[in-house]
Amino acid sequence: MRIKSSIIIYFTISILVGCQFNINKQNDIDNLPVPKVSSNDKAIIPTMQTAPWSIEGYMTRHINSVNSIQSNLYDIIFIGDSIIQRFETVGIDNLKIINSKFTVYNLGFEGDKTENVLWRLHNGELPNNNHTKYFVILIGTNNSKFNNDAPESIASGIGHIITLIHKVSPDTKILLLSILPRGRDKFDICRKNNERVNSIIKKYNSHLNVIYIDLTEYFIDDYGNLISENYNSDYVHITPKGYSIIKNKIFEYL
Questions:
Q1: For 72-208, where are the alpha helices, taking DSSP H only?
Q2: If we measure between CA atoms, which residue out of 12, 27, 136 comes closest to residue 62?
């Protein structure tokens, strides 16, 4: 019953938000050097998160996010996957520092890929105003891990996210964070795929108000090993020290 109630509430909110503004599904990305991929590429098609563990908690977070985004004004909006979401827990001290100077909302969702972010933005999580000063984006590592998406597909998905934000909020600056290194060593397949994504998305810098921030050097040593104090034991998620690094780099551009 709780799941059904969440779904009913969600669709009610979606209808109301849809009345406020209309976002064309086909965005003009000619002003961003996005790789050309098939229109059927799953990384660029807005898709609701369907992982079994996400069913109720994910939708509840989404509904709450839509309510907040459409009812309030925020200076900074973070968007991404679990690394961004865990700013609220592991990185909370760093988030509080940012929040002491700016109004902040966190649109990080565990397990998300580019297509899931696109779905959320198309379904109410994008502000219907031009007030937001900065969007901070970190997304893509789950595309490498769970979809085995090609770098071009992931980079194109990120490009579509940027274009969608710029369409609705053209004055907003977009701080695009590089996908963080992951895995035990430099030969990790997902890490190598993410490195290729970064080599593409760094070219988005200076287009559509994008500022690309490369974090790689702060998370690996000269031998290509992860800096242990910045990572959890899963070699993916980061520690408070890692969040401090991200916070400090973001502050350089605020």
A1: 82-85, 92-99, 114-120, 141-142, 151-168, 189-201
A2: 12
The identity of residue 168, as a single letter, is V
Give the phi and the psi of residue 163 in degrees, each rounded to 5: -65, -40
Q: Would you write out the chain's pLDDT as a tens digit for each of its 254 residues?
A: 444 444 444 444 444 444 344 444 444 577 899 999 999 999 999 999 988 877 779 999 999 999 999 999 999 999 999 999 999 999 999 999 999 999 999 999 999 999 999 999 999 999 988 899 999 999 999 999 999 999 999 999 999 999 999 999 999 999 999 999 999 999 999 999 999 999 999 999 999 999 999 999 999 999 999 999 999 999 999 999 999 999 999 999 99
Domains present along the chain, CATH in parentheses: 2-251 (3.40.50.1110)
- pTM, two decimal places: 0.90
Residues with Cβ within 8 Å of 14's Cβ and at least 6 positions away in sequence, in order, are 66, 123, 124
* CA–CA separation, 145 and 15 (whole Å): 34
